[in-house]
Amino acid sequence: MPYQDFITLVHKSTQRDYLARVNEYPKEKAAELAKKFDYDYWDGDRKTGYGGFRYDGRWQKVAQAMVDHYGIKPGDKVLDVGCGKGFLLYDFTQIVPDIEVVGLDISEYAIANAKEEIKDCLIQGNAKKLPFNDNDFDLVISINTLHNLYVYELDSALKEIERVAKSNKYICVESYRNEKEKVNLMYWQLTCEMFCTPKEWEWWFEKTGYSGDYSFIYFE
Q1: Domain containing 75 — which CATH number?
Q2: Does any domain span residue 156?
Q3: End-to-end CA distance of the chain
Q4: Is the dihedral of CA 17, 18, 20, 24 positive or negative?
Q5: How many Å apart are CA 176 and CA 198, to the nearest integer?
């Protein structure tokens, strides 16, 4: 279960004003809107989510790094748990011809407004119960999703990711290493339910039998 970072460069490319996040708009109202995972979260104002979640190719380098690291080849199956609009999965299809991609997300809005080329590959669902067979995928990924689950759901979700993957698995979640990062995380987040340090996340991985790779993003 090694630490493997694919996400930091993308995460650090975004500039964040933490104080504005809590001062410009009532945070509890922003969180209430965001947790519907509807228009306000994806394409509404930045105060309630992404402020317009549009394809810009920034995930291409992440997809390429994963293809290289895991040896993904034509005919392989890749699952993204918490796929959003499917941008990363689309990039996989551009890098590896004839790859089979599947995305699952809780947001009906995200799937309805997904990248047109792979919209038919996405389904609505919850990470705590994946509608797939055992050992069904050559690679299962989940990026910035599992920290949105409650404790009792996280246990199931980690076990489900382990169940449906043949071998390769990668998870990225939000975390904090000190009080500054914890405060920044709480200022910035809108949908988090799990606020864990790296050691706590690693405890969860061990407890649930998750054997894949993982990394954390921090709000420095």
Answers
A1: 3.40.50.150
A2: yes
A3: 25
A4: positive
A5: 7
